[in-house]
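Q: Two folds, back to back.
A: First:
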Amino acid sequence: MSAYFLGVDIGGTKSHALIADASGWAVGFGEAGPGNYEDVGYDGLAATLAVVTQRALADAGITKEQIAGAGFGIAGYDWPSQREPHLAAIRPLGLDHAPFELVNDTIIGLLTGAPSGWGIAVIAGTRANCWGWDQNRRIGRLTGYGWRMAEVAGGLELVGKAVQSVALAWTRRGPATRLTQAFIEWTGARDIEDLLEGLSLERLQVDASAAPLVFQAAAKGDLVAQDIILWAGRELGSLAIGVIRQLNFEALEFDAVLVGSLYKGSPLLVEAMRQTVYTVAPGARFTSLSAPPVVGGVLLGMEQAGLNAPTLRETLIQSSMELLSTRSIS
């Protein structure tokens, strides 16, 4: 019976599963919605794991018994005390026969983007996070708890700053901004007062999906929106610096992998981040992913089964992109 390897990437907005054979050739893909337990609970995590894995198995035309190794990158898995409940969500998949590993989703982004297999990865998606490890797999990381721990600049925080700028403009504490009209149209509010009343009383909602409004306003020359993006870039750079210092990377050349849809919004974001990091670690090599982070989950699964995963990385990336070009993914 042929051996296959499963990678799973569970996120706060969407989740992916990828299956490849022992040569690194991708053969199956599955997609589902959010699975971060902070948003959907552990039952919701288990449900998302089941759906996304079953879809990948069906796409590959194989059974779970043919899985020889698996790697799970899960958003929200931040502390050792959370390992057991996360494992409990994985067990119903019926992969007890196969070795597997569970890591924070940032790590599988690092494995996907760093040819060396070590460095740091900075996520800027629905939320922001940064983890890394050195050549000996010593970990550097953040808490993963956003505003509460001053770890900001994901889509949620970017939109939060934008909403604040609209309120500042209305109360005459800040300059006028195109974001006012953009949020009125986005929410369907009648006018600025209806917008701010609706947001204040939670009759209206905005979330990370509104982040493109900020990038669009910035592209049209809105200085407020541009300042928000520059703020986000500096904050992401600060997250990276923390992990760089934990791992003593300041004088090294290393990969800094950028993971998440926010990086596609504006070159201002990446440039502000780059300049912030270079003040501490001029040897950082900034790399954007050429394949989805779930590829790193497959590499992690291969590693658990004893394969020389780094030698299969390029084949896996190439074949995954060929496979995904025939699928409609978000």
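A: Second:
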Amino acid sequence: MLSILLVRFSSIGDVLLTTPLLRALRRRHPEASLTFVTKRALVPLVSDNPHLTRVLALEPDEPLRHLAARLRPFAPTHALDLHGSLRSRVLRFLVPGKWTGYRKRKLARGWLISTKLDWYGAHVPVAERYFEAARDLDVRPDGGPPEFALGTQATLRVAEWARAEGLEGASLAVLAPGAAHATKRWPPAHWAALAARLAARGQVPVIVGGAADRGIAAQIGGPVRTVAGTFSLQETGALLARARVAVSGDTGVMHLATGVGTPVVALFGPTVRQFGFAPYGAPAEVLERALECRPCSAMGSARCPMGHHRCLDDILPPEADAAAARLAG
């Protein structure tokens, strides 16, 4: 029997983009054992995935040799390194098996950032690049979106919140203003203007994110509700599943939305679609500006190298609102 080990330690979007591969593996090899390994904090992204046999967590500060000792008894016939980091490469030496990986296109990405010349050739989303690691397993992408399977407790928690807030049956619009790097953040004034427009059309804007995003939510103010720092990953997914539309930067929330079938307006600034992380296989609109300075970094940075941040500042609230209206139907 096939025993397939899949390793992707982080982050939110990267983990969710592995799920089309999980779906394809299960369909092609229904009897196979599929073991997924990720960081403890990201386990909720795949803990309820119906295609997996088990999910194992890399615990905080856990030595790789301890993780490897837990993995070896599963005797993987195929081991798929979907991370391509130093840590995952070390794991290859510690866990016997037929290991394969995928090309991360780092040279093309670096060249595009530094020279603005596109060496990518055909555009291949990251969700499909992962299939390179399964080249010996006879699977192909089906074009479908990522899957974020939700547990019952998360769905009930959000239903209780909606009742308490008087939002049962309300038309929700989820806003995700936060990002790890400043250059990926749309200005708070733009978010405030968008929230006002959404509210004027009868939608209830709800801000999601981590505890660090509460400050941004406070700056936005206006007719918004916020659950930033309150909802877990699964609860955020359950909230998104109730929403008519989501608006997000190039962050994990964008992929959470596609994973639960919610249309998403994606605001792309310092990054570009060639990197492979645009919304995949789901209703979405990417808003971006054709500027000579884009892309300026692989994952965003603390400040705009040009000092103007036009890549996001120039995307105005009426454009985002119009896209949200089209997607919400």
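Q: And?
A: The first helix runs from residue 12 to 16.
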